[in-house]
Design a protein that fits this description.
This protein is mostly helical and 77 residues long. 51% of the residues lie in helices and 10% in strands.
Length: 77
């Protein structure tokens, strides 16, 4: 967790909210929600899994957020 001043926390929250509300992020969130509901309805367990929009599949949080083992410094998204 980041240690931020009160002022920095407010500014970061504002930036994060603006980014989360962009059309592409909203579309990804909606897609994720649709797919999670669909898979849960079929009886799959999605505990500990994130949907990877690049690979179009559910994968572990560790693998997904680590960019499939490549780290995130070279990620272009």
């Amino acid at each position: 967790m980041q240690k931020l001043s009160a002022e920095a926390k407010v500014k970061k929250a504002k930036r994060d909210k603006q980014y989360a509300m962009t059309p592409s992020r909203r579309a990804k969130k909606a897609e994720n929600q649709r797919l999670r509901r669909k898979y849960l309805k079929k009886g799959f367990s999605l505990a500990g899994l994130d949907y990877d929009h690049e690979d179009k599949k559910f994968e572990s949080v560790k693998r997904h957020r680590g960019n499939d083992g490549n780290g995130t410094k070279t990620e272009t998204t």
